[in-house]
Amino acid sequence: MMKRRDCLEILKKHIKDEIVVAAYSTAHDWLDINDRPLNYFSFGAMGLGSSHGLGLALARPERKVVVFDGDGSLLMNLGTLVTIGAAQPKNFIHTVWHNGSYEANGGHPLPNRDVDFVGLAKSAGYGKVYRLDDIRNFEQQIGAILKEEGPVFVDVIIEQGPIVPREYDEMYKPERRRKLREVLGA
Amino acid sequence: MNATTNPAQTGDALHGPAIIKAVKDAGVTYVLSVPDLHTAKGLLTPITADKDLTLIRTCKEDECLGIAAGLSYGNKRALILIQYTGFLYALNAIRGVGVEHKMPMAMMIGLLGKEPGVPPQQSKRYGLRIIEPILDVMGIERHYIDVDADIPKVTAAINKAYEISQPVALLIGRKPV
Fold first, then answer.
1. Which of A38, A81, B133, B143 shows a CA-CA span of 20 to 30 A to A9?
2. Chain A interface residues facing chain B, Cβ-Cβ under 8 Å?
3. Do A44 and B100 touch (CB under 8 A)?
4. Do A51 and B63 touch (CB under 8 A)?
């Protein structure tokens, strides 16, 4: 099992001009580690990160879109796997940060923390699926995975992070979305 | 059917192709939809065959709000085509993505089961009576599309939603033909 921040530090070395769509606790850590204009923090309702990402991927086919989803978030919008599997966006990488808990909501467990996201994603139509639970494997594989043609799904098995109050106002600032639009020319 | 009861002949009809043209005139290129019996034949079926529109079939209505938000970052306009029950299901996403974060959302909402000629708030169906009051309390602009004469409102309403970045609801009262 891995620590989320260790994985994000590795990802920072590989993320260049991709749009990163991040949600909740992973978004918090990613903002702290790699604050950049091409970050898009999922907003509006829990579970919609991958849906925001699908829209971005369809609208910006010239760029890779990498979603950092939560496991509780994905369970709240599980049909998104089928929608994405049908749409087949070639520039779409969907990672789910799987710690078995609603970390942002107090750390209570998922109804079933061992849910097989990889199996669900594969049957939904994702072309490539991975499960990474060892930091050495993560470091060795994630760069190549990010270069693959989508839709790709990666189940990232991590420890639960600290249960602390999270402040979301900073990541949801309208200026951030305006800056992203500027960078994308939208 | 005699001349007095044929909607197409009395001018009381709502024609799907004219609605689709109005949507396309507003620059919409994506349709995001969960099928709705009210609009399935008159709108969704011809949209499926329309080469100017890309249809993304979603599993739940709230997905559409996220997808439409993402599409806006490529200057792509979307129509969210759903039933009123799906609108009720997706209220939290509409609240968060559309209203609080001020994203452009063009929602076309089928009022399945509404009695012909009866305003939605006077319907016998509870679910239909509450739609307009909910939109009003959320501060979402709404337009009632019931006959062909209402269709010109569609293009203007979608254009406005995208120009000033806000949600709009287009309520389809009569089943389009």
1. A81
2. 21, 40, 42-45, 47-60, 77, 79-80, 82-83, 86-87, 172, 174, 180-181, 184, 186
3. yes
4. yes
* Global pTM value: 0.95
What span, in angstroms and rounded, lies between the C-alpha atoms of A120 and A78?
A: 9
The correct CATH number of B7-172 out of 3.30.420.240, 1.10.1740.10, 3.60.15.10, 3.40.50.970 is: 3.40.50.970
Structure tokens at B26: 């507003």
For chain B, strand residue ranges (E) read: 28-33, 54-57, 77-83, 105-110, 141-145, 167-172
CA dist., res. B79 & res. B31, Å (int): 5
Q: Looking at this protein, which amino acid is placed at residue B18?
A: A
Best to test chain B binding among A65, A69, A83 (most B CBs inside 10 Å): A83
Asked if ipTM goes beyond 0.90, one says yes
